[in-house]
Amino acid sequence: MDPHVVQLGLWPDPTFDGNRTRPYRRKQNPYAGSKQWRCRRDEVIQRQRFRCWRCQREERLQVHHLTYDHLGDERPSELVALCITCHGVVHQDEQEARRLFLPCGVL
Prior knowledge:
This protein is of the alpha+beta class.
């Protein structure tokens, strides 16, 4: 590990070397399958008591980024657990909001 890399104390992972890769897709981003991400994901789901943030269901939970500003070094407040249905709805709502606020022809 690079001695100049500072790691968050909230999620210690001795295998984390400080590298971050975009975009977020698992095939293109090793972080998505890393031990560090799995640890963060598990902590978010446990923090929400194994329930969807939106509908409170307890099935098929995924973790949603409220922002990608700190991808690979997320703060707890930037992540929420959502069931697969709500996760899809949230992404559709975000896409619609972007479409409404971007000038014509940008998308």
